[in-house]
Q: What sequence folds into this?
DNA sequence: GCATTTCGATACAAATATGTATTGAGTTGG
DNA sequence: CCAACTCAATACATATTTGTATCGAAATGC
């Protein structure tokens, strides 16, 4: 259909994306300082020329990767919440678990976000950027929780920000445990436990036999 | 009192400790790969000669630092639990908060432990070492909790391992938040909230006015 | 279709980090 | 008090890594 000769050379944007792909792997596997240009490029079959032609510095690349990762996470969460909220009659328990399931749960994701966090703590310039982006994620969670709680008011609305942070913290913590000792801790166990705690409307739920309904995560 | 001439040269062990001090700072501030021999030595006024004379490699130094940090944490926690358990009549709430308060809560500590964690995830050789050491910390927490629960049985004993991990995860998560946006989140807020959740023996506690008794952390 | 521009690969130069070797001060044992 | 030894500082050689400059292929516009 194209009257022009078929492209044999990828566009600038495509190469950029490929570099970002390589950077994702390399930063996850070896960390910010540990990842080298060579390492990043090898993974996607490009030369350092493409690297230096696409990004002015390592920091710029790191920022770009962070933004891409967060953008994808954001749309993923928004989609999941919209989907879950659209189906009526969902209980808070089910929704929370569905929501949590939509959060990335793989090795590279964890390693990367940990690396991002450390970088942010060490570089004030990125700290605010990071906090702002993470604020959006928290807002999505809070919004979803707020919608849930219109039907299921077992949690005080004032605690929402706190709960959202709690969910994030526990998710990351349990992801670390799961990666460190695979099989030792079930992937969603901690979060399930936390949700049970929060949604317990009486003491009996806390002590109930939690094995009766094993999660299939 | 010493018949020998006063030492003018520090012992090997002392130098080793100083290198570890420098390494603690450097690894916390710049990460494993980011920290250089020069960087580590400068902080404690030693030369790279002392460094290379004390440690065969960077990994060896990192391991040694990890062990020292964990050892100190372990004795700190053991002391805290022993102390808290010795005074009779302590409620679970008070004890948990005292225990949590004994856990390190400073920037370097967080950055270091995060770095250790990442290193462990990336190097299988350290993973088991790390998991074993962290298991001891968890055991201390579980033991303390078990002692508490003899008097205050609002939590099922079978959930102890899960709860211990939850406490650790939330602690680390809130420490990160606190460092990223100082003042935005009170240092112990998330943990207090979690403890409230766990010890709520009826739904009213969850929804109670938590500002009535602000924690002085 | 040709000139111009863009992009990515290769080659080069500079900076930085690590480990080894050497040296001199300080310590220990006879 | 002297000889042997230990330790940390300095100097050196090697290896990586990064950034720049150059070159050729490919796309675009006239």
A:
């Amino acid at each position: 259909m194209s009257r022009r000769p078929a492209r044999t050379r990828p566009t600038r944007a495509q190469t950029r994306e490929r570099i970002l792909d390589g950077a994702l792997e390399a930063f996850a596997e070896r960390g910010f300082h540990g990842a080298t240009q060579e390492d990043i490029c090898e993974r996607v079959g490009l030369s350092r020329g493409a690297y230096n032609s696409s990004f002015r510095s390592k920091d710029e690349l790191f920022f770009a990767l962070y933004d891409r990762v967060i953008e994808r996470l954001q749309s993923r969460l928004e989609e999941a919440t919209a989907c879950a909220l659209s189906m009526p009659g969902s209980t808070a328990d089910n929704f929370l678990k569905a929501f949590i399931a939509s959060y990335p749960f793989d090795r590279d994701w964890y390693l990367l976000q940990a690396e991002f966090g450390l970088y942010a703590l060490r570089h004030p310039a990125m700290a605010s950027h990071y906090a702002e982006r993470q604020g959006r994620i928290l807002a999505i969670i809070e919004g979803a929780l707020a919608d849930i709680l219109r039907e299921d008011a077992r949690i005080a609305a004032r605690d929402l920000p706190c709960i959202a942070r709690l969910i994030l913290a526990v998710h990351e913590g349990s992801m670390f445990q799961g990666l460190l000792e695979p099989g030792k801790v079930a992937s969603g166990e901690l979060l399930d436990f936390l949700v049970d705690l929060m949604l317990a409307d009486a003491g009996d739920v806390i002590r109930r036999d939690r094995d009766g309904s094993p999660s299939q995560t």
